[in-house]
Design a protein that fits this description.
323 residues, five-stranded antiparallel beta sheet, 18% helix, 22% strand
């Protein structure tokens, strides 16, 4: 393994961890095939006609892309892949972070100004001014833009006067909340979550992730349902109910607190209530549906019979500390 600490996909395992998993699966199985797809990242070979990446140079080699690798590491991966391959196409998507160009519709970030440009975000590792520069080079609605916008709660936190509270609590998607998105909710990424009446934990409606199947082969796709929590929150827990008939390497449900992965769920065929502990203050919660999180070039044909290719969220509530 060329770089044991490299993280090749959205699932979060390092190359060393994937290497430890490989002997537990049978050669030729769907799981083994998914694992072997990481070889192009974990042990790339130098190629003629290598994948081009940031031909005019990388502005900041130590900048960490949303997938977890630095721009310098991604450049090494490019050299081990062929121009025009599916993997090269995925790698080149990181150019918007590593060598950004001005976009027609730039990623919106702190539209009313950055409160403290020199503040360093704990999750991103860059100053708010640097995160703002990244946003200017990315496109609104992209997966990278969604991750960047998670830093708004640090760089330009909303005051309680302008923030919309989660009301009622529990927040269900019954009338008059059967319109999505509306504050304090937003949605974005490679598709949008919508109101759905096929599954609900309470009442008739819930929110459902989009159908992302049929996209470009070998490319991981994500879609977020995002909840903004106001800065007057006294601390406690966010309770929510999830239905997740999904299964890696096809798809999974992952949730993030202020841009940092908290946990994930798959193979959940019945509604399940979960809790996220939260400290006092403003927070951004991203419920992220991930399709092909390992960027497998060709997913197995033998899909599990209980997989439905979507996840649902319902009955969301904030429980204050001591309540």
């Amino acid at each position: 393994i060329t770089n044991p600490d490299l993280v090749p996909g959205a699932a979060g395992q390092t190359c060393a961890q994937i290497g430890d998993l490989a002997p537990t699966f049978t050669e030729g199985s769907a799981a083994c095939t998914a694992i072997q797809a990481a070889e192009i990242t974990c042990c790339p070979q130098s190629l003629d006609g290598a994948c081009t990446f940031c031909n005019e140079g990388i502005a900041n080699p130590d900048l960490v892309h949303v997938g977890g690798q630095t721009c310098a590491q991604i450049e090494v991966l490019a050299a081990g892949n062929t121009e025009g391959s599916d993997t090269c196409t995925v790698i080149q998507e990181a150019e918007s972070t590593c060598c950004p160009q001005t976009q027609d519709v730039a990623c919106a970030f702190c539209n009313e100004g950055i409160t403290n440009p020199d503040l360093v975000s704990d999750s991103a590792g860059q100053t708010c001014a640097q995160v703002g520069a990244l946003a200017a080079g990315d496109t609104e609605g992209s997966a990278t833009c969604t991750a960047i916008q998670a830093e708004e709660s640090t760089c330009c936190p909303q005051s309680s006067e302008s923030c919309v509270p989660l009301d009622p609590s529990p927040y269900t998607f019954e009338p008059p909340n059967d319109v999505f998105p509306k504050a304090p909710w937003t949605t974005g990424g490679d598709g949008e979550w919508t109101i759905d009446d096929t599954n609900a934990q309470e009442g008739t409606y819930s929110i459902k992730s989009p159908n992302l199947e049929g996209g470009s082969a070998g490319i991981a796709l994500v879609s977020n349902a995002t909840l903004e929590i106001c800065d007057d929150f006294s601390g406690g827990s966010l309770m929510f109910n999830a239905l997740a008939p999904v299964l890696p390497p096809f798809d999974s449900l992952v949730w993030f607190i202020d841009g940092v992965e908290n946990s994930q769920l798959a193979g959940q065929l019945e509604w399940r209530q979960l809790a996220i502990p939260l400290p006092p203050g403003a927070h951004r919660i991203d419920f992220q549906y991930q399709y092909n999180p390992f960027s497998v070039p060709v997913l197995p044909d033998d899909q599990p019979p209980n997989r439905q290719g979507a996840v649902w969220i319902d009955a969301v509530s904030l429980v204050s500390m001591g309540a």
